[in-house]
Design a protein that fits this description.
Elements (H helix, E strand, L loop, with lengths): L1 E7 L5 H16 L4 E8 L6 E8 L2 H7 L3 H11 L3 E5 L3 E4 L2 E4 L25
Antiparallel strand pairs: 1-3, 1-4, 2-3, 5-6
Helix pairs in contact: 1-3
Protein name: Antibiotic biosynthesis monooxygenase
Keywords: Monooxygenase, Oxidoreductase
GO molecular function, one term: monooxygenase activity
Length: 124
Amino acid sequence: MLLVCDFTVPDADSAEFSAQASRATELLTAQPGCVRAVIGRSADEPEKWAMTVEFTSVVAYRRAMSPFDVREHVIPFLSRGDAAAYEIFATATDGKAEQQVSVVAADAAIAGPRDASGPATPRG
């Protein structure tokens, strides 16, 4: 699971934002199942920032968002930007890509809450 959040931060607010971003990454990476968190700033547009956080699973992502200190600090921080969670499709290291098996059902777009027992057929 990959959390991606884009932020637009005026230069005057960058020091405060950077401190809040660091605190958010510390809190998230302290949670079980959080692999890593990265904060970046655009080299071309200094007011553009991005944060990515990788989790081992959807369950790890949801559990990481549950502790009180995360809800108190991270959720409000993320609400400053445009956040989205993504299923990881593939990873690559040392020139070799490995495709991941989807955990989302092929009919996820039309399935209702009573159908949510897990994907019988993962989407491709």
